[in-house]
Structure formats: C-alpha cells, structure tokens
Amino acid sequence: MKACRVTLMLIVTAVLICASNVQAAYIIEAHSSGLANDHFTGSAGPYESSRSTAVGTTAAKSMFDTVAGDTFVFTYTPGYDIDNFMPGVGVNLGNGDLSTNMTGCSSGLFNVYITWPWSDSTNTGGVNITIANDDEDIYLPFVNMNVNGFGNPNPGNKIGNNQWLLLASNVPLTAGNTYTVTEVANGTGTGYAKIRAQGILWEKVADTPFPLSASVSEMTVIEGNVGQSYTLVMDSAPPGDVIYTVTASEPNQVWLNDSLNTTTVIFTPENWTQEKTVVVKAYDDQDVESDHQVILWQTTDLADPNDAPLSVLNGGMLCYITVDIIDNEAPGVQINEHNDATMVDEQGSTMDYYEMKLLFPPTANVDIMITTDGQTVVSASETGTPAATAQITFTAANWYIPQKVYVTAVDDDIRFENNHTSTIHHSISTTAAEYLGVAVADVIVDVADNECGVWGYSPYDFNEDCSVDLGDFAIFAAGWLDCSQPYVEGCVNF
Length: 494
Prior knowledge:
Elements: H1 11-19, E1 25-29, E2 40-42, E3 48-50, E4 61-65, E5 71-76, E6 92-94, E7 97-98, E8 108-115, E9 127-131, E10 138-143, E11 165-173, E12 179-185, E13 195-197, E14 199-207, E15 212-214, E16 218-222, E17 228-234, E18 242-248, E19 254-256, E20 259-260, E21 262-267, E22 276-282, E23 292-302, E24 316-326, E25 333-337, E26 342-345, E27 352-358, E28 366-371, E29 376-379, E30 389-394, E31 403-409, E32 420-430, E33 443-448, H2 470-481
Parallel strand pairs: 16-24, 26-33
Antiparallel strand pairs: 1-14, 2-5, 3-4, 4-13, 5-12, 6-7, 8-11, 8-14, 9-10, 9-12, 15-17, 17-22, 18-21, 18-23, 19-20, 19-22, 23-24, 25-27, 27-31, 28-30, 28-32, 29-31, 32-33
C-alpha cells in the first residue's frame, strides 16, 4: 500500500490523497508465490499448470488436483486481511467487469471472482463452488473448468480462461468475519485433472453505512518524535455508550493515547457531537528495524448490547489505519567483547575473542576487514592460522548472527614495554549502499608482556634494566655517599 505522509495541518488533504491510493481488491492465490497465499488450503495434487494472466495475479503457476471430492478453500476476512492489489479505476477484470477501486476493509457488498489458466487437460465433470456470506450461502453446483479445445467456450457453461470470472455479485460481508470460497472436484467426467485453481478475487462494490468515521486511513510516525493524531466523529446520537477500541497489529510498536498497543475512547448520548482524538506515537526502541508498518484495527461495541437501534456498532469495525514507522536506528556494526574486555599474554597461554554482527540487513555482502598494529594477530576461526589481517563476511542471511574474531598476542623481544595494549582496526568493504561509509569501532586489547620486569625487578636491579651490573653498583654507591649517617632522615637503607 502506498504511504500517505499525514501532518496535523493537512488532515483534509491527506484524506483525499489516501482515498485516491487505497487498494481495492483482495486476491488469494493457490500457488505459494502468489498474493495472500496463506489464505488458501487444499490437497494440491501432483499437477501444476502455467499461471493465469488475469489482472493482478502474480503466482508463477496454478494448481491441479485429480481425485473426486478434493477441495480447495480460499478464506477472506475484510478489515483484517489487508487489501493487496489496486487495479486502476475502470480496469477490465474480464467479461467486461470493471474495477471499482473501493477500499475493502469495511462492511459492504462484494463481487466474487475466480480465475484459472488455460488448459484442455481438465475433465468436463466440472467443480462445485460454495460462497459463504452473511445471507444464505451461494452454491454453484456445476462450473466447467475445461476450455473445450484451446480456449473455445462451451456455450452455457462458466469458463474462465486467464480472466476474472464473476461467480457472484453483491455478496454481503461484514468486516471482521471470515468468509470462504470452497471449490470441490466433481466425481464425473474424465481427463487428467478434475479441479484447478489460480485464485479468488474479492472486489468491493458498495459500502455499508457506518455512523462512526475516522479522519485518516494512513499516517507516518517517526521513532523519538511527537507522533500524529486523527479524529473520530459520529453522525448520529447513539442510544447508549459506544466503546471505540484501537489495537495495533504488532505489539510494542506504537503508543496510542499514551497507552502501549491499545486504547479506548467512549461516545455517549451526551457527548457524541464532540470529536475524539487518538494520538499515535512510535515506540522508540533500540532495535534497528528499518522502516516498518503496523495496522490499527478499529472496533466498536455498545456498553449495553441490548441497544438494538445501533446494533451495527456492537462488534462493528471501521476501516483499518495503516501506520508507517520510520526507524531512528541506523545501519552499523555491533562489537561485543568476551567478558567485556579482550585480554591476551605474550606467553601464549591465552587466546581471547570478540564478536561482531550487523545491526541492519544488508542488500549485498558486507566484508569486515580486520587489521592489527603488530602487537597481536587475529583469525576468523579458533583453529585458523593467526595473521596480521583477517576478514569476516556478513550476508543477507546471516547479518544478525554474531561472528567471532580470535586474538593472540605476538611474543616479541622488546624490553621495557611492560604490560601494554594493542589496537585492532576494522573497515568495511561492500557494494551495499546502506553500509557505504559506515565506521566500525576499534578493539583495544590488553597484552601481558613476558619480558623481564613485568612481574617486578631484582632488589639489586636499581636501574630496572633487567641486568645487575656496574650501573646498578654506581647507583648504590651514589646513594650511599649522599648519607654520612645511614639512618638519618632522607637516607635509604640499601
């Protein structure tokens, strides 16, 4: 769905803009690569055909089944299943039917279509189709799915070859309720397959009047920002208190009137003329999530369900509101040191490690180039050969999985460096635009030296050069000569 960036001062304009961009039709396709395929179930037999070319279908193939009684079921819940296709106003859906471009998220009347691809290998026994709705179920006892020789229709039969075939018009649906189109293979006829399916299209053609409306259908909020708001109005006095509830489709993503995830407001017979405001603010977490989206489900109930004159408000549902959330975290590299510090010794008795992972999924491989300052060596695996440089690679599949960098001290012969530190530098090599120019922190390693003096000096090594010689005797003699009386203040007892 296209995002409409709504500001408080442009609510009226935003409503008009969003109205021109809403998605109108909901398509469920049988093949797993299609739209809303989670809303399809069936035995999906061993045969597959080429896809239908009907407007809006995207699945690569279509399903066949071969056993009488096998069943395909397509389900749709207006108001909860987000509309996923927007044919332009007046687009021909097949058989001369034109797209309405109406929002399918609320109660109303819907046309129901079915499509399938070309084939002459389906038996002539047909299928039985049932459409569940708010009235008596619609039952179509015979639909011929054979194209009768390369697309030539058999007069009198419903044959939909690569088009949306209208099964039923003005089918009443209530938002929040789940409806089905059930397709059952007929037991008669011969041929390679008894049933086939590409998808079902629900196309809204008329709204059910609802006495409560919201000022927007989409908005954008930014983590760490003040948020946005929308208003609710009623067009008539309710017979009793009306409880309006807003619930986010994903937890811990938005504050609603200072409550996390959900909020309620109440209209009464006394205050129904007053607009109610819902403030939507992004939950400012520390996760790098990229820009994402939540849906606000808007439901109504009567405090007293016996208030029959407005029963539409008892368990009723407004159109959902789409909230685009702009994340305020950025792509980067997180480093976690083992036990919060990296420590090695020149004696070679310790090897330490730190972990790295990306904070944002990359669009291409991200190579982290690791370079030491010569005091340490590194390896990308515990059994690898340590070297002055190493490399680890993150992909779109493993970017969030920490990878270890193993560190070993270089046992040099340098005296007088004592316990010291080593700096390990990192840089990024990638074609992923989001990681170009991203800096990576250094790791500072504590290195324990193993040369003389690290653990102290001989009491006779006065100049602490790890050698007792005439230089040390000279220091001793100078100090001795400074004091004519050995135990007076300021004299040192060697």
